[in-house]
Amino acid sequence: MPVDTYHVIAKYYDGAYAAKQDLVDLPFYLELAEQSRGPVLEIACGTGRVLLPIARKGIEVCGVDNSQPMLQVLLENLAAEALEVRQRITVHEGDMRSFRLAQRFPLVMIPFRPMQHMFTVEDQVAALKTAAAHLTDTGVLAFDVFYPKFEMIWARVGEEVAEMEWTPPSDPTRTVRRFFRKDSIDKIHQIFNFTFIFRTYERTGQNESLVLEETESFRLCYYTYPHLRALFLLAGLEAVAEYGSFSKAALDNQAEQMIFLLRKL
């Protein structure tokens, strides 16, 4: 069954991440998709931010997600695509810990940190085993998580921070601003809880007024490198490449990301 979450986030997701200047993962995943020649499985495909560009490259791609609001936006986005793009795409509802498809893929990807929504070791291993179960014998699993900056994780708890703003294409008189408030941190389980706040402002002449405010709670776990390596062993996977950035920089003390390419043992 689909999970009825992301009610608010789904509405703003495409606008927010189109405006996010430091989101540079797409070329990395597109290169992997082209090298694989498809078909590609994207786990936690959301509204299609990565899935749609892959299909536009002429590659068959299958997307799975468990959020009904996100999948609804994806279906709306699909309707705006050319027929030949739509024909390359299949979409399924499913939980990344447990879904199983009959098909196997030379490339399985989990882009933009869905693994950070797995909050227990049991769920983390189950998600990796699900991905591994859909690989061909020589297939590759690619995913990323952020490299934890512990000084930042503990900073500014309870403060509201402005993150980004954009103008909705449907109404150029309005501006949406997204704010972030870190609410609490679970040090033992490596989880932090926060709230996204979306405020919509309307411009009239030189004046601007708040016309809508919506919020949604969110949480993420964070990983250390040894933690991830242990999870790979438990899931029957081994790393064949690892990077500290989407430009394939070394995974070292300067790393901003932890990006892995894995194969079945």
Short account of what is shown:
The chain contains eight helices and eleven strands. With 265 residues, the chain is of the alpha/beta class. It folds into two domains: 183 residues, Vaccinia Virus protein VP39 (Rossmann fold), CATH 3.40.50; 72 residues.
Q: Please, could you describe this protein's structure?
A:
The protein is 27% helix and 36% strand. With 265 residues, it is an alpha/beta fold. The protein folds into 2 domains: 7-147 and 223-264, Vaccinia Virus protein VP39 (Rossmann fold, 3-Layer(aba) Sandwich); 150-221. It has a 7-stranded mixed β-sheet, with helices on both faces. Strands 6-7-8-9 form a 4-stranded antiparallel β-sheet, with helices on one face. Strand 1 (40-43), helix 3 and strand 2 form a beta-alpha-beta unit. The longest helix has 13 residues, at 121-133. It is globular and about 60 Å long. The chain starts with 6 loop residues before the first helix and ends with a strand. The relative contact order is 0.14. The mean pLDDT is 95.
Kindly give the count of domains: 2
Oligomer kind: single chain
In the predicted model, the low-confidence regions spanning at least 5 consecutive residues are none
Shape: globular
CATH architecture of the largest domain: 3-Layer(aba) Sandwich
- CATH topology tier name of the largest domain: Rossmann fold
Average of the residue pLDDT scores = 95
Overall structural class, as computed from helix and strand content, comes to: alpha/beta
Helix content: 25-40%
